[in-house]
Structures are given as structure tokens and as C-alpha cells.
Write a structure and sequence with these properties.
The chain is α/β, with parallel strands linked by helices. Helix content is about 40%, strand content about 20%. The structure holds 6-O-phosphono-beta-D-fructofuranose.
């Protein structure tokens, strides 16, 4: 079979490890691979690249994606589905391995229903994709954020400051809770829990009144805030831009700065904010993510061998299993609140 491989959505450490695993396993079984550049855009624009043993050599440890990526949505392009199907036929592609998160795999699920042979591999640093315990990239992001929190601890302590650390997580607080727990954060704020600024300041004041002169607050970028300026009943997102992408997502960022201002105003503690942003998505994947990405890639080819189209590789416990694309994109996997409760034991 001729397998088209694409990576879509935000990049993520481990993408190259998946591409390498798919190509190596496919070639071993006598298949042929072709790279589709920049996600679904490459399929719309017939932008293909050779994928052989040489092209995937030396990429296991490299961040980013050798195929490039985009947030192109086939279903937002006029006749997108028709164009994609024609281009697949013209390029003699028998099936596609789509490596992506909720948006990329959402398109994959629709194309599968339209008759395209597709399997998926679950990717996102946010870890909010349903039907898999973990996505690759998440562990790397958590490690980067944890190291940042460790570093911020020493400077916060030296200056008697509160430091607010903003981490990624558009809809889910997985990165915030994992990195916050690992880094010993004094408060963690996540999209799944309404933020009460008075409560936050109360926790900090109590902590400082027992002799602590510094605090670390970890906040997900997707937290909704209710402040004097943002008076929506449920609070509102803090946006770094009003622009929306092709999947309708607004660009988040900046909640940490607003929170820091509010904390300083309400408590009198000198407060600073650090936004980790795309640093969490860049660079080499951790060993855990390299192994997970490799297992996912090999399994995806096994799905293709069995013609289990419409499915993706998923992690359940320590096993790689199949999960339907519909299950994966049907709903978001938000934070397990029992985990949040464990983290909350250490607040203050
Ligand atoms: O891919 C997930 C994610 O990293 C989110 O955590 C974040 O909100 C978003 O992507 C940022 O997207 P962009 O790459 O468009 O800045």
C-alpha cells in the first residue's frame, strides 16, 4: 500500500518519532510512504515529499516535524473534501496516517465517513484528546514546565515575591496540575474549576502569615477570570489576539499577567508573571514521549495492515490499543478532578 503521512495542528515533541516509526515499520512490511506537507493543506495543494529510510534517519530526538504543520481545515475550504479525494486518487495514495489532535483527527473522522482510508495517531501537549490515557508531547511539556517552576522558585524566594506561571492548556488543566504538583506549586488554577480571586488571595495571605515570604501560582492559559474589566458571570478568557483559526479557536494568552496584577493589588505582595508559551512545545521529546510516539507509529501501521480504518492508536494503562476516531473527537478529555484534589492538599 502507499501510505500518506501528515502532521496537523500545533506542533509537539515526538512528531518526528512517530513519522520515523510509521515509515520504518511500513517499509519493513513492504509498503511505500509519502509525506504530505503541512497537514491537510498539503493534501489540498498536492504538496508531497518523498519518505524513505534516509528521510527519517536521525530525527527520533528532534522536536517539531519534518513534514511541517498547519491548522488548515478541509471543511472550511470550498469543495475541500472533493479536492482532497481527487488528489488522493491522483497521487495513488491508498491510505492516510493522520498524526494530530482533536482538530486534525476531527477532519480525519469526517473524511473516513466520506470513504477515505484513514488511521490516526493522537498528538497534543494538552493531553485533552479523548479515548487515550496520554498523548505524546504531554510528558515533554510537563517536564519543561516543571523545570521552569523549579527555576522560578529560587528567584521568587530570593526576592520575596509571588510568581505566577502561565502554562498551556486551552480547555484542560492537565499540564498545570502535573507540572504544578511536580514543581510544588502553592496554588494551581485550571479551566475545569472556577477561579475565585478572593480565595486565591486568601490562600496566599495565610501562607505568608505562617512565615513564607514567596509563593508560586500555576495557571492554565484557558482559565476564565472575573475581574473588574472582565465581568462576565462565568468569567472570560484572556486573549492575546481576537483572531480565530480555521477551527474557530481564539488565541489565548495573558491570563498570568492579569492574575499577577490582581494578586499584587489585593494582597500587597510583590508579584510577577512568567508566560511559558511555545517553549513548552519546542525542542527534544523526553524518553517517555519518544517511546510512546514510537509505539503509536508502529501500531498505526498495524492498523493499516488489518485495514482497521477509522481507528487510531491509543494508550490504555500500559497497552497500546485501538480507539475509534469518533470516540477520540466526540468530547474533550478534561482533567480528572480527583487528581486536582490531590494537588490541592498542598495549596497554601
Ligand atoms: O496545540 C495545543 C496548543 O499548544 C494549546 O495549548 C495552545 O492554546 C495552542 O496550541 C496555541 O496555538 P498556536 O500554535 O496557534 O499558538
Amino acid at each position: 500500500m502507499k501510505i500518506g503521512v501528515l502532521t496537523g495542528g500545533g506542533d509537539c515533541p515526538g512528531l518526528n518519532a512517530v513519522i520515523r516509526a510509521v515509515v520504518r515499520k511500513a517499509l519493513l512490511l513492504g509498503h511505500e510512504c509519502i509525506g504530505i506537507k503541512e497537514g491537510w493543506r498539503g493534501l489540498l495543494e498536492k504538496n508531497f515529499v518523498k519518505l524513505d529510510l534516509d528521510s527519517v534517519s536521525g530525527i527520533l530526538h528532534r522536536g517539531g516535524t519534518i513534514l511541517g504543520t498547519s491548522r488548515t481545515n478541509v471543511y472550511k475550504v470550498e469543495n475541500g473534501e472533493k479536492i482532497v479525494k481527487e488528489n488522493i486518487k491522483e497521487a495513488n495514495i491508498d491510505c492516510i496516517c493522520a498524526i494530530g489532535g482533536e482538530d486534525t483527527l476531527g477532519v480525519a473522522a469526517k473524511l473516513f465517513k466520506a470513504g477515505v482510508n484513514i488511521v490516526g495517531v493522537p498528538k497534543t501537549i494538552d493531553n485533552d484528546l479523548n479515548a487515550t490515557d496520554y498523548t505524546f508531547g504531554f510528558d515533554t511539556a510537563v517536564n519543561i514546565a516543571t523545570e521552569a517552576i523549579d527555576r522560578l522558585h529560587t528567584t521568587a524566594e530570593s526576592h520575596n515575591r509571588v510568581i505566577v506561571v502561565e502554562v498551556m492548556g486551552r480547555h484542560a488543566g492537565w499540564i498545570a496540575v502535573h507540572a504544578g504538583m511536580a514543581g510544588g506549586a502553592d496554588i494551581i488554577l485550571v479551566p475545569e474549576k472556577p477561579v475565585n480571586l478572593e480565595e486565591v488571595c486568601d490562600i496566599l495571605t495565610k501562607r505568608h502569615s505562617r512565615g513564607k515570604s514567596f509563593s508560586i501560582v500555576v495557571v492554565s492559559e484557558g482559565v476564565k477570570l472575573q475581574t473588574e474589566e472582565q465581568t462576565d458571570k462565568d468569567g472570560s478568557f484572556v486573549l492575546s489576539s481576537m483572531q480565530k483559526d480555521a477551527f474557530g479557536h481564539v488565541r489565548l494568552g495573558g491570563v498570568g499577567n492579569i492574575l499577577a496584577e490582581e494578586i499584587e493589588k489585593r494582597t500587597g505582595f510583590e508579584t510577577r508573571a512568567t508566560v511559558l508559551g511555545h517553549i513548552q512545545r519546542g525542542g527534544s521529546p523526553t524518553a517517555f514521549d519518544r517511546v510512546l510516539a514510537t509505539r503509536f507509529g508502529v501500531f498505526a501501521v498495524e492498523l493499516i495492515e488489518k485495514r482497521r480504518f477509522g481507528y487510531m492508536a491509543a494508550l490504555r494503562g500500559n497497552e497500546i490499543v485501538e480507539a475509534s476516531l469518533d470516540d477520540a473527537v466526540g468530547k474533550l478529555k478534561t482533567l480528572d478532578l480527583r487528581l486536582y484534589d490531590v494537588a490541592a492538599t498542598f495549596f497554601g
